[in-house]
Fold this protein.
Amino acid sequence: MSQPAVSKQEIGFGGELHTVQQLAARYGIPVQTVYVWRMQHKGPRSMKLGKRVFYRMEDILAWEESNLEPKSA
């Protein structure tokens, strides 16, 4: 089962953050793939808080938007 997103109140941040596991579940890919993307500077922008890696929803959506196929005529 997926963990709830970390709330902005918990971390004093202006948006919703998601874990590596949540991102992997969103795309139906292995967690290791998300870590590989991060090492290769692929995938959504990430941030590290302490030892944990998080993804802002705005960065996830921006990355998805940038990967859309162009509209067919």
